[in-house]
Amino acid sequence: MGTPTTRPATLDDVARAAGVSRATASRVLGGYGFTSADARARVGAAADRLGYVPDVTARALVRGAGVRLVVAVIGRAGTVLDDPYVHRVVSAASRVCAPHGVGVALEWLPLGDPSGLVRLGADRGVCGVVLVNTTPAALAAVPARLQGRVVSIGTGSATVPSFDVDNAAGAEAVLRHLYTTGRRRIAMVTGPRWLVCAERSVTAYRGLMRAAGLPERVVTGDFTTARGGRAALEALRRWPELDAVYAASDATAFGVIAALRGRGLRVPHDVAVAGFDDLPYAAVSSPPLTTATHPVDRIAAAAATAVLTRASVAPATAFASTLVARESA
Amino acid sequence: MGTPTTRPATLDDVARAAGVSRATASRVLGGYGFTSADARARVGAAADRLGYVPDVTARALVRGAGVRLVVAVIGRAGTVLDDPYVHRVVSAASRVCAPHGVGVALEWLPLGDPSGLVRLGADRGVCGVVLVNTTPAALAAVPARLQGRVVSIGTGSATVPSFDVDNAAGAEAVLRHLYTTGRRRIAMVTGPRWLVCAERSVTAYRGLMRAAGLPERVVTGDFTTARGGRAALEALRRWPELDAVYAASDATAFGVIAALRGRGLRVPHDVAVAGFDDLPYAAVSSPPLTTATHPVDRIAAAAATAVLTRASVAPATAFASTLVARESA
DNA sequence: GCTTGTGGTGGTAGCGCTCTCAGGTGTGCG
DNA sequence: CGCACACCTGAGAGCGCTACCACCACAAGC
Q1: Nearest-CA distance from B132 to chain A in Å?
Q2: Which of A159, A252, B150, B326 has the least CB density, counted as fewest CB within 10 Å?
């Protein structure tokens, strides 16, 4: 339980209480090297009698391990940090890191200038980096010292393993649903065009449309609700006949729905709308949004785990995305 | 800029390059003690020529300062960590901490058993704690070593300063709006009853109803959408005549609206619904939700800053909440 | 006997930093 | 001239921990 003393117990205290040397106590607590059953018992007992908690700071110092994981978000402006997507990444990473005594820091890497990575590479406090919204420039800017400590959510590279949702499969599931429910004049509102992983959805959309002999109708979005609304109006202007919109994110879809309604169109009766992400609100929006799942928490947890354990991981891990058919499409 | 060497530069490297002792370099970089203009110039130049970044780990070790801030969420089950509210607290805290080389860790303190605080008190890696969803039990369990390093979002105590939204003012703004738009049979769906800060809204509601000579209609909720829906049905059963619902959170309000519609009632024509939080989705929901602002980001940033700077702060800081009148009420 | 393990232990050198302390060099003043 | 004082500097002692290394005891093999 731990006697509440003024000063937290140190390894020395534990060793002294157990009648062994600091080295032996360290071996027992660290679980390495040879230790007798007797030593293990005594050190263990002493440790939890004193409420011993290892000092991650000292440990990191001597191991050169670092003490916080940086979630580096690449984007156009500081506001990308407000994206609920980023929130979920940070929370999931934090939950993985907490038991290791590792903290999480959220940082912004301006789009086109990922030189901040150099500083992160020089910072000994950093035990690893999770890149969000990867760009080729960022991948190229990863400093040598960080090799093997950087992972990416989104597209990776030979040296940076990636963890991502299977955008193509998600897009296909949604588009197939639109098709089987009779929609043929389907437009897509994309994510930001510089985002490699967002482009995968567009590629999937184009491929599917072509395969079905349907015309391609693409409008650029940026994952936000506001832009989604504007994109919907543009789509309507260019293709007044459209009967479905596939939005690259749920937030976009909400904007699309609001804009369509503003034009007097009924969703899904006149125009079906589907999103991507399956945000919590998607289930309670009006109408409830048809979308595809995006297991951000599992993705971020896997990414953080990979950094923390430094285990060798596959260069690219894809997480399944499945259709959630509700009422908007 | 920093020449990309294999090993990040240390203070020794900087001192040697500047031709001064480590102590002088430390004084210059740390900005304390006496330093000559000459020394300052040379050390500064050497530092950024070498791309020197102080090792927060070593610094924390010698200062006994800790290296991560813990956001401790008190709640019924592990799932409270998925609350978007918590996400925002973590992100805002992280943004404040990042420049200091401090990470953020998210932890869950089971409701009724805040003994985890004892462990945090023994953990030298922890530089402070931000308590979310404070309970009296948690306030009492704060270990001595953590005194002055713990703040609370929600109600505090003599030793734990608090930062919170002005629930009462927010509730009043919303209820006044309902009243002036002609609603008289107003029910409230509350937050969790054990949450001190949530009870402040209920108290405000009761006071206002009483002052207006209106009957009090209170149903217990827990801030979730699902519970909001069930609470709305219960309210409808008990008071079929009601013409407005004040939900203690936007998430609750969404559940309420969905449930009311399920009963064939129109919002706001038959029943007005207002929430509290002003989530991003509130602006695009259908109908757009009337609610009151909850500046979580500013609150969390202030809380984190207080812990980090250890400056003396007022025992309780309230952040204004203002009405956002949209269409649901 | 001597070697070569095998299982266990303690001494101790740092990791990179901060900060105290003992000095050193002026400058002003009695 | 002596003394106080302000300004500046470097040596060095650790912060708590890990891990390298030397050592010891005992057993087995030649």
Answers
A1: 14
A2: A159
